[in-house]
Amino acid sequence: MDTKFAIGELVKKKRTEKSWTQEKLSSEAGINNRFLQKIEAGDRTPSLITIFKLASALGITPEKIITPIWKVWQKKHQ
Predict the structure, then answer these.
(1) Is 71 buried (19+), middle (13-18) or exposed (0-12) by CB count in 10 A?
(2) Residues 7-60: pLDDT tens digits?
(3) Which of 3, 24, 48, 60 is paired with 66 by a 20 to 30 Å CA distance?
(4) Rounded distance, CA 47 to CA 12, Å?
(5) How many C-beta atoms lie closer than 10 Å to residue 61's C-beta?
(6) Nearest-angstrom CA–CA distance, 77 and 19
(7) How far, in whole angstroms, is CA 74 from its chain's centroid?
């Protein structure tokens, strides 16, 4: 699995666990809604700062996003 898709799936999972819309998360995180849509679709890779914003808005630590993605990347590059 590509890391872009893994990030998007994880962000979407965390968002839906809170029963939030994309509009709600993008507003809470202070990012553009279209950009969030592209992240969730696997079309864009968020910067580290954007990951921090998303994690903060979701009430989780950034490692909850970064660690699973790192594991995906590690498997792909072994």
Answers:
(1) exposed
(2) 999 999 999 999 999 999 999 999 999 999 999 999 999 999 999 999 999 999
(3) 24
(4) 17
(5) 12
(6) 34
(7) 18
| Residue 76: burial class (beta carbons within 10 Å; 0-12, 13-18, 19+) | exposed
pLDDT of residue 78: 85
Single-letter residue type at 58: L
DSSP letter at 62 equals T
Rounded CA-CA distance 12/27 in Å is 15
At 14 the pLDDT is 97
Please give the span between the terminal C-alpha atoms of the chain, in angstroms, as a whole number. 14
17-52 as b/e, with b when 16 or more CB fall inside 10 Å? eeebebeebbebbebeeeebebbbebebebeeebbb
- The CA-CA-CA angle for residues 15, 19, 24, to 5°, reads 65
